[in-house]
Design a protein that fits this description.
2 copies of one chain form a homodimer. Chain A is α/β, with parallel strands linked by helices. Chain A is about 45% helix and about 15% strand. In chain A, α8 runs antiparallel to α9. In chain A, about 50% of the residues are buried.
């Protein structure tokens, strides 16, 4: 069994831990947390250590807030190990030079309350050394069927795209939810539509899948919708995306 | 077998026709099209007629562009029948008074190139007369397991919500696609994320499901993303939805 250290206890750390625990050739050696005073419910007590007490492992996964990655990697109390971060936006080279560098970015939206099929999660890998890339590929291919080599530059653009298709999309769901709630309609009535909209682009390009008043140029409906919306920022979003549908892509 | 007339040959007409053809107690009597010179490939030749030649049926479904509904309903060559439209935004009372009025609104995104599980499509019903509402319920419950009574006022708000969660969401997918294409990344890598984002709100509220730099208040990442985006309208959408996540819902 190869050993893995995880540093962090957020959503990504949680799902990585779960996936690695289910693997056959890897085991979690330790999870480094900020304080042992505040136990983290999903981490077994005997796995938890402070960062300064972490012992070397085959791979160390840093899964903390982007802005803390550099400092955390500097505080790792060992050298010449393979240390990777899991961030979509952070360049590989912010990692401290005392260890070998890489990136292990799972391109998925993770919440602790929702299990995911980890074997479907795209894992975007990068490493400074070819041997280390192979190490990461071995781990990644045991956890997922979707493994990609992605440069720091590509990863940056992927992360922006991910914000649009996931974080922003979820916010549009939240707006739909608000509109339903304000009009005494169950949000459940929109769920088949949400599902089908996501499902459609499995076989159609988003361009071919586009429907609705904006792409039809149905100005009467657009005007009625804009008039209906009283929340000024929702109205602004309506106008802007309508304009974008009509002019872009 | 009860008879159904459909007026129109667009995406909604296509999927309604397919669903009704599969039903056991209803059959398509005729489909009224604009011109018999231009055959519509999904309509059997012997079903197609011109509007002026349409004969009365148990239910007549008008599935044309919103702005044409009033005029089309006026040209129907019979009276005292149940005539309903399938529009999300149009009030029931735009239908001509010479027939009994109702609405049969399938809340789904329809494209001819993509089959849907019609039994999951929410059907939103309204009728001026209780007997007619029952007629519509009988048809609806044979086509779908999701049948709702929705007033014209509620339907209007539902349609606005649907534009956000479906048309606008699809446009965010299109933006993701553009960003990938511009950076030599396959759009396929985003598909598990799109799927999971839609799947998540089956068990979490959109508010609880929200992740990403905006909700985390990760200004460094937000700044980097805004700088990355060169398309001015994509940049504007990024700013506006980020602001909306941080201030609303």
């Amino acid at each position: 069994m190869k050993t893995i250290n995880i540093i962090g206890s957020g959503n990504v750390a949680y799902h990585l831990l779960r996936a690695i625990e289910k693997s056959t050739n890897y085991k979690i050696q330790n999870v480094a947390v900020r304080s042992l005073e505040k136990p983290v419910d999903f981490i077994a007590a005997d796995l938890m250590v402070l960062l300064e007490d972490l012992k070397p492992a085959a791979i160390t996964l840093i899964s903390v807030t982007d802005s803390a990655i550099a400092a955390v990697s500097e505080k790792i109390p060992y050298t010449d190990s393979l240390v990777v971060h899991t961030s979509g936006t952070t360049a590989m080279d912010v990692l401290n030079d005392k260890n070998r560098k890489g990136v292990f970015y799972p391109l998925q939206t993770f919440s602790k309350q929702k299990e995911v099929l980890f074997e479907e999660v795209p894992l975007c890998l990068e490493a400074a050394e070819p041997n280390d890339l192979n190490e990461l590929k071995l781990l990644a291919s045991e956890l997922s069927n979707n493994v990609f080599e992605i440069t720091s530059e590509q990863r940056k653009s992927l992360h922006v795209a991910a914000v649009f298709v996931s974080n922003f999309t979820n916010h549009l769901y939240a707006i739909g939810n608000e509109i339903c709630a304000a009009n005494n309609i169950s949000f459940a009535i929109l769920k088949p539509l949400i599902k089908e909209t996501a499902d459609k682009i499995r076989c159609l390009s988003p361009k071919d899948a586009q429907t609705g008043p904006a792409i039809r140029g149905d100005q009467k409906t657009i005007d009625a919708h804009e008039q209906f919306l009283t929340n000024p920022i929702f109205k602004e979003i309506y106008k802007l995306i309508t304009q974008s549908i009509q002019t872009n892509v």
